[in-house]
Design goal:
84% helix
Length: 243
């Protein structure tokens, strides 16, 4: 006979997963999710200091329900500016990635495992994580081997420690965060100038272009270095597992 506590906990996890999956499927299929995210950004912009907390909560929910965080990251640049927006997104995306990681580890472990089953690249990364832990997490964050949202859940079924995952993700996502926030800030600045009816001077265009090129160049360079390092470590892990 099953113990009541064990029976309840064993049913709660699958029920939560099913409910979340159904809600997500309905939202993506029938609801204007991306439009809601844009309107949420407009609402956040009018809240003042409280908008920061609202934005962080929205970002965490977007990560858990696998909604496109790039819209929010770009929007943060337009709403908060480069420096403040980067800091806010960096914290929000790390908390969101960690929340999804915990859901994948404790509530949706079996479903995530089924989804990535047979993926040879992830299997090699899983083995590499077992050997080098946070280094692999950081490199995969710098080099987009997997989609951001799926990676959050996928790491939940590996042996990486929560602390290592948290800090490696935070650092690894930072270059990409800076680039997207800068792009959003640039778009917001140009839109503001258009609304004011002010023309852009050659100097303004030059500053925008130099800043954009520098941001993209640094991000691409870091990404290439990370991709090469990741490939080397993953191949080493795969080769070691075949011995």
């Amino acid at each position: 006979m099953e113990q009541p506590g064990k029976s309840w906990s064993s049913r709660l996890g699958p029920a939560a997963v099913v409910l979340g999956v159904v809600a997500f499927a309905v939202a993506v299929r029938f609801l204007p999710v991306q439009e809601w995210l844009r309107r949420s950004l407009e609402w956040v912009g009018g809240l003042g200091p409280a908008g920061v907390i609202a934005f962080v909560v929205i970002y965490i929910l977007a990560c858990v329900f696998m909604l496109p965080g790039s819209i929010l990251t770009l929007g943060a640049g337009a709403v908060f500016g480069v420096v403040k927006g980067t800091a806010i997104v960096s914290v929000a995306s790390t908390l969101g990635a960690t929340a999804a990681f915990l859901v994948g580890r404790h509530l949706a472990r079996e479903r995530v495992a089924r989804r990535i089953e047979g993926n040879q690249r992830f299997r090699a990364i899983d083995e590499a994580v077992g050997r080098e832990g946070w280094k692999i997490v950081g490199l995969t964050r710098l080099s987009p081997v997997f989609p951001f949202n799926l990676l959050n859940y996928a790491y939940g079924i590996t042996g990486v420690r929560l602390r290592d995952y948290f800090f490696a993700s935070w650092i690894g996502m930072f270059p990409g965060t800076v680039m997207y926030v800068y792009l959003g800030s640039l778009a917001g600045s140009l839109a503001a100038l258009d609304k004011q009816g002010a023309g852009r001077t050659p100097l303004q265009w030059a500053l925008y272009l130099v800043g954009l090129l520098a941001t993209v160049a640094v991000t691409v360079l870091v990404t290439r270095i990370a991709r090469a390092a990741l490939a080397k470590r993953v191949e080493g892990a795969a080769g070691g597992s075949q011995r």
